[in-house]
Specification:
Strand order of the largest sheet: 2-5-6-7-8-9-10-11-12-13-14-15
Strand content: over 45%
Structural class: mainly beta
CATH class: Mainly Beta
Shape: globular
CATH topology: Porin
Number of strands: 15
CATH superfamily: monomeric porin ompg
Number of helices: 3
Number of domains: 1
CATH architecture: Beta Barrel
Order of helices and strands: HEEEEEEEEEEEEHEEHE
Radius of gyration: 18 Å
Length: about 250
């Protein structure tokens, strides 16, 4: 999500504890994750600890660490549902301290080298003094698993009552089985919300570690983020601009 505007800014405490508990639970499920359940449903999950929660170029935690966890259930026909959560810190008056993202979608191969993912994503912020919740329609096309184009549209962008369109292009560059680099550039069309739009870019180095004992995959990630001046005008210098994010994530 995003702490970009005055009607979305945040704070953290109890949800952070809940997220930690969820992460511990995910780690405990390591040996059962990705197993095919009765009815052809595959379950997977992830837990992460990050030095910052950066979303579309800007910090969602005022530069503070974030604990995150998620679950996904996918059917053999490509339909899936997922829930993901993180602590956040927006403007103090909103009293927002947690974010939960609920997704329903379909993903699958449409040609030999092409894959598509279309979904509806709902951002929810419990226990806030104002209505920050909003919904976005997303679609992405991936080529050979390493190059992608994504679009996200909402008529209530960032919790407003206005339209917003987000676009991103990205590429993945594997060095070997353990190391890869990823680069992405995005542009968020927010003229209806802020009378301006902004661009951002990011570059990541990701090291994958096989944790055979727990059958969980662990990734260490270091990402450099940068935004243009419009993002700083919208969200402030402390949330946008340049920043480095480090994270460790376990998936199973």
């Amino acid at each position: 999500m995003s702490s970009h505007h005055l009607f979305r800014s945040r704070e953290a405490a109890v949800p952070l504890v809940l997220a930690v508990c969820a992460g511990v639970g995910l780690l405990a499920l390591g040996t059962r994750a990705h197993a095919a359940e009765p009815g052809g449903i595959q379950l997977s999950g992830s837990a992460a600890l990050a030095s910052d929660y950066v979303w579309r170029g800007s910090s969602q935690t005022q530069g503070d660490p974030a604990v995150q966890a998620g679950f996904k259930a996918a059917a053999a026909n490509g339909l899936y549902g997922s829930v993901w959560g993180s602590n956040v810190e927006f403007a103090p008056q909103t009293h927002a301290s947690s974010e939960f993202d609920f997704t329903l979608g379909w993903a699958g191969q449409v040609a030999e080298h092409w894959a598509v993912d279309v979904n509806v994503l709902h951002y929810r912020y419990p226990s806030t003094t104002t209505d920050l919740d909003w919904t976005e329609f997303n679609g992405s096309v991936t080529y050979r698993g390493n190059y992608w184009l994504s679009l996200g549209y909402s008529n209530e962008a960032l919790g407003s009552k206005q339209r917003g369109l987000y676009s991103q292009v990205g590429a993945r560059f594997p060095v070997n089985d353990a190391l890869r680099f990823e680069a992405a550039a995005g542009h968020y069309f927010l003229d209806d919300v802020y009378d301006r739009s902004y661009s951002h870019g990011q570059l990541s180095a990701i090291w994958a570690v096989k944790a055979s004992a727990s059958k969980a995959n662990v990734e260490l990630r270091l990402t450099a983020h940068a935004t243009d001046r419009n993002a700083e005008r919208i969200f402030g210098d402390s949330l946008a601009g340049s920043r480095i994010e480090a994270a460790v994530q376990a998936s199973f």
